[in-house]
């Protein structure tokens, strides 16, 4: 039997030439939702940790969702729509859309697998025409009398580093599939995604950082400079 083909895409700096989580943080600064000096200091520090592979994702998510927790659902959802128009739509490039469309036209299942949280990324996945999103899921206050909004905690396994492998496995299992029954292509720019790159049938170093480019060259992986 021919295995099911699955195309997995990281989002930030892979399909997008920006980091959507970082850009959302900058957007909240511009909105006056956070103290600009303190937020930028902490946001820059977390981003440096991400690039270095030392990020504590649970600490980061508590920080990154503080503004939307304070503002509440109505204001936050409206602001995200403005963020999509002002920042994200302008960052989506034709060659990235074409890559996604090519896999869809071939009949591949297309999944965005990102370490950025679901609030930021769900509308972005929709803008790419991708229904299947594996993102950091956020816990909601669903207790009787609760707000129904985000608490700042992560629900389940965060889709970050080794967690991406776990979350893709869960996604496959929910569809009666496993690694042995699928052919997976995974596009990513970052060494943080090495566990899933190594697990994929075809790893593609996409707009890779220096460390991933060197590793891809050493291992003979395909290198795709989508935005050059």
Question: What would you note in describing this structure?
Answer:
With 228 residues, the protein is α/β, with parallel strands linked by helices. The protein has one domain (4-224): HAD superfamily/HAD-like (Rossmann fold, 3-Layer(aba) Sandwich). Helices cover 50% and strands 19% of the residues. It has ten helices and eight strands. It has helices spanning 20-31, 36-52, 57-64, 66-71, 73-91, 94-105, 118-127, 162-174, 194-199, 210-219; strands spanning 4-9, 109-117, 132-136, 138-140, 150-154, 182-188, 202-206, 222-224. The strands form two sheets. A six-stranded parallel β-sheet has the order 3-2-1-6-7-8, sandwiched between helices. A two-stranded antiparallel ribbon has the order 4-5. It is globular. The mean pLDDT is 95.
Q: If you average the pLDDT, what whole number results?
A: 95
Number of domains: 1
Under CATH, the topology can be stated as Rossmann fold
Shape: globular
Question: Fraction of residues in helices?
Answer: 40-55%
CATH architecture label: 3-Layer(aba) Sandwich
Keywords:
single chain; 228 residues; alpha/beta; Rossmann fold; six-stranded parallel β-sheet; two-stranded antiparallel sheet; 10 helices; 50% helix; globular
């Amino acid at each position: 039997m021919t295995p099911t083909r699955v195309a997995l895409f990281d989002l930030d700096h892979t399909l997008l030439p920006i980091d959507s989580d970082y850009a959302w943080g900058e957007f909240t600064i511009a909105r006056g939702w956070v103290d600009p000096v303190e937020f930028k200091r902490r946001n820059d520090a977390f981003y440096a940790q991400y690039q270095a592979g030392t990020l504590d994702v649970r600490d980061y998510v508590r920080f990154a969702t503080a503004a939307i927790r304070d503002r509440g659902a109505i204001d936050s959802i409206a602001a995200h729509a403005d963020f999509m128009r002002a920042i994200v739509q302008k960052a989506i490039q034709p060659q990235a859309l074409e890559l996604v469309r090519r896999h869809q036209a071939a009949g591949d299942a297309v999944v965005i697998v990102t370490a950025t949280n679901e609030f930021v990324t769900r509308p972005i996945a929709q803008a790419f025409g991708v229904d299947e999103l594996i993102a950091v899921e956020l816990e909601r206050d669903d207790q009787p009398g609760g707000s129904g909004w985000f608490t700042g905690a992560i629900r389940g396994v965060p889709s970050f580093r080794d967690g991406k492998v776990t979350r893709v496995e869960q996604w496959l299992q929910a569809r009666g599939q496993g690694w042995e029954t699928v052919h997976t292509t995974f596009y990513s720019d970052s060494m943080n995604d090495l566990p899933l790159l190594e697990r994929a049938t075809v790893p593609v170093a996409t707009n890779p950082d220096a460390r991933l480019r060197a590793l891809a060259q050493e291992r003979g992986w395909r290198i795709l400079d989508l935005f050059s």
